[in-house]
Specification:
- This protein has helices at about 25-35, 40-45, 50-70, 135-140, 145-150, 160-175; strands spanning about 15-20, 80-85, 90, 100-105, 110-115, 120-125, 185-190, 200-205, 205, 215-220, 225-230.
- About 30% of the residues lie in helices and about 25% in strands.
- By secondary structure, the chain is of the alpha+beta class.
- It is globular.
- Helix 1 packs across helix 3, helix 2 packs antiparallel against helix 3 (about 50-70) and helix 4 (about 135-140) packs antiparallel against helix 5.
- It contains six helices and eleven strands.
- The strands form four sheets. A three-stranded antiparallel beta sheet has the order 1-5-4, with helices on one face.
- Residues about 1-5 have low confidence and may be disordered.
């Protein structure tokens, strides 16, 4: 599944390409995927307690290499990645000289990848489900306006609204490169039913239409919600 055309230039934003792939592959594809991993990645895969999680990690990392190789005109086994303290993959040299930026997210047996040339990008995918302490999480981590809007929803609408808000926020902090160390209440996103298109409403005291970032939503599969944030052209990152 390739959503690149659907997300290109929306709202004046730079083009962002999204690729969604399945991670539940056969044994031959799994072996081929494992052969593409670095020794460090094979060690990380071996540390997972469950075979299901080892398989998902292996296929997701191999697929990332294949997608990067196709866009950089090189062999998949020549793509080198390094990992930050949070485990986020980043290109190693000589890829570091490329303008290609990317972000990765996976949920169960689905992985989503976002690519953009010269613009920071973040992606997140989640499965919609009932979360027993969702109301408490929203009260603690969402902004006051978001939390109030969430509390006012009908209970039947809350699971979709919660994960719509969460994926949009997660995609933004991943685009910033901050992870969840960036306070989620410092910015606001649209998420209420019928509130489309997806928008960043505020970043600190800056209105969303002047914050330098554009938000997209997409559906990666049944029961799933996805969001992508891409840096606009000629902009400064949001204040940290």
């Amino acid at each position: 599944m390739d959503l690149g055309d659907a997300l290109s230039g929306y709202g004046g934003a730079p083009a962002v390409e999204v690729v969604v792939t399945r991670l539940d592959v056969g044994s031959d594809a799994l072996r081929a995927s494992a052969a593409l991993l670095s020794p460090e990645e094979r060690h990380r895969a071996s540390c997972f307690a469950f075979d299901r999680d080892r398989r998902r990690f292996t296929v997701a990392r191999a697929r990332l290499r294949q997608l990067l190789a196709a866009r950089l005109d090189m062999r998949s086994d020549a793509v080198e990645l390094v990992y930050g303290d949070s485990g986020k993959p980043a290109p190693a040299r000589p890829l570091a000289g490329s303008d290609l930026r990317f972000s990765v997210s996976h949920c169960d047996d689905v992985a989503a990848y976002a690519f953009s040339l010269g613009h920071e990008v973040g992606i997140d995918v989640e499965a919609v489900r009932a979360v027993p302490d969702a109301d408490d999480i929203a009260a603690r981590m969402f902004s006051r306006r978001e939390s109030a809007a969430y509390r006012a929803l009908d209970p039947s609408a809350k699971p979709v609204a919660f994960f719509t808000c969460w994926t949009r926020k997660e995609a933004f902090v991943k685009a910033l490169g901050e992870g969840l160390s960036y306070p989620l209440d410092r910015f606001e996103v649209s998420f209420e039913p019928g509130d489309e298109p997806a928008r960043i409403l505020r970043v600190d005291g800056t209105p969303g239409d002047r914050c330098g970032w554009t938000l997209h939503s997409f559906v990666p599969g049944p029961g799933l919600i996805g969001a992508v944030v891409v840096q606009q052209a000629a902009c400064e990152p949001a204040p940290t």
